[in-house]
Predict the structure.
Amino acid sequence: MKIKYTISLVFIVAVVIIKKESNIISKVLDKLSLKQTAQTPLQTSGSSWSPLRQNGTNALVLSELDFSSYLEVKWHLKNITEPSKGRKHILLLATTRTGSSFVGEFFNQHGANMFYLFEPLWHVARMLTVEGGETNGTALTKAYRDVLHQLFLCDFTLLESFIKPPPKDHITTGLFRRESSQSLCKDPVCTPFVKKGYVPPQCRNQRCGPLNLTLASLSCLGKEHHAIKSVRVWQLETLRLLAEDPRLDLKVIQLVRDPRATLASRMVAFANKYKYWKRWTMSGDIPKDDNKVRKLRETCENIRMSAEVGLKQPPWLHGRYMLVRYEDIAMFPMLKAVELYQFTGIPFTAQVKEWILRNTQASNKASGIYSTKRNSSQQVEKWRFSMPFKLAQMVQKICGPTMNLFGYTFAESEEMLMDKSISLIEDRPFL
């Protein structure tokens, strides 16, 4: 009798506990459903069954619950609401020709614990850019945010919808600059290359076959840290959803460069796109309201406004934002690399140190326009001796507030522009 009484008592207590925790879960789910109605519903990626389902209003509700289902729901909620322990998610933000490929290598070269992606948003921009080069800003911003969000969670399914031609069975040969990511060019993601028709092997030093995005996702999940480099997100506010997601420990590094140097570099790298600028420079007649001039102004303003948001450190971004100038990195690459790693909370590795030593003393002949090998200190003021003073004046007028914020000095004359003894970069800390 005593044994039966004890078993009955234990059973009753267990039922009461389960009922209480079920009520707690229901309350949490109610909150989740309210939160999710304005966003994409949460999903259990990688699972064929979920105790969570959607009703007609797209809210999450609890399906029929037995004890085993209850345990799975509890596990699911734990993985949604608890912040990651130790894993960092790094987003390097920049614009084209600011040295972002070079700085991105600081993380790409970290070693076996880092999963690094190079410009995955290229595919989004390519698909959503309409004829004439214009884009739907609202659609683009949302797509950038959502793709980044999924990629940091090691989910490639949304990115796949932007890749052309579409991947077959999650396998593609069309991922932009795959070879720039060590994570995608090593085992187990690097599958043996089998020669078929005209398709070349992927990756520079590895004869990898087409990219299996399922293997990439599994590799990503197995890495301790995740980093993405992008030149396509300019408005910091769009990242708020990522910063507030407890599954991520987001660290945003905004890389900036003197707008005069950026324009000079673009005129070399993208000669066709910037042929009008060269023509204006030669004729001395630079229009004030040309569309290309307006784009330069918009770029400078977007960079400045994002930096102002980051430097103010609002609660959602507190401790998650760092501003760094390319010029400081080029002059002191090792010191700045260590600072970047201290900010992210990730150990600085011997592999990164070795790469920096090997790639910051390259000869000029070894440096192509897309190369990450360079004599970095020589790159800082190289633009001053190729840019006509009138063009520098125009950039100063258009991007003046941005230059002031980042500590770039105006050249008051052609003599000042060409004088190596005068620095056009203020010694300014960004905290």
In short: The longest strand covers residues 250-256. The CA atoms of residues 330 and 376 lie 5 Å apart. Residues 12-84, 364-371 have pLDDT under 50 and may be disordered.
